[in-house]
Amino acid sequence: MRVRFQYRRYRLAFRAAVRTAHGVWSEREGILVRVSDEGGLAGLGEAACLPWFGTETADAAEAACAKFGEWVGAEELDEVPVSLVCLRNAVAAARGELEERVQIADGGERRVRDYAPYLGVAALLPAGRAVLAALGPKAEAGFRVFKWKVGVGEVADELGLLDEVCAALPSGAKLRLDANGAWDRRKAERWLERCADRPVEFVEQPVAADARGAEDVLRGLAEDWPTPIALDESLAGDGDVERWIGAGWRGVWVVKPSLLGDVARTLARLERAKATVVFSSSLETAVGARAALQWAFGWKGEARALGFGVWPLFQDARCDGPYAAPFIRVADLDRIDAEAVWNATN
Q: Which residues are catalytic?
């Protein structure tokens, strides 16, 4: 079957800059792809590239897109290089959506998916003292799991804030700490010692994935302290997941579906390993978010609160996913207007 292949590069400003240990992030860059048939039915996908996380750059994804003609044989789209994980993800999502639309148009029924009816969401909290002003409204909105960006300021200052944050949590709430690899082992141990008797669900990526001896340090922290450790930047692609499974990792796995080249295979491997998975946003647009959330809703393992409490995110609200609420429902995915995102990037 011949299909029409289109792509658009986007650069979208955030409503408010996101501060992490990697620096200040003020805009999102990536590629949207659109695959349509001769009758005009179409599917969309997103290459939400994050080169500092280990994916290809938007330049590399765009260069690969430019090599395709406007009309190509569908099988030609299988030739996206394995190294371009985000673009492979985008093309697979677009083709999958197109195939389902064609099936329905031909009189077939919509694919029945065994989805959870709804999933809880963790509210994203800003770094520094701004966390205190943000936490109250989130709690009043009904959130009971919160994710705080740490590793941005001095350890002593942030540790002092930790008690204030914990005191402001609603009864029974849990706090996730995301260090984005900012600490060495000594700093991580200071945090884990303080977390031991506080309502901290887990500490995410305390040590940088590329630090010397990082894997041994992460395993050691997971074994020596009661607060669970979660891998995030250490899972930069499908191969990293396989490697950590082979190493017997029993902590938490923060999985960003948008950054995997073969999502189905990787999630199946995690399911067989009975992994504790937390699905997380890559701050993608609604196009990539819809695809990522579909994988989350189809997960058969333990359902942890999603790391998708990030919206409203963009200055152009047409590009946002489901508005941040304590729960996301399957129906929220059906209401996402992917074509509006495509049009917004024109």
A: 149, 256
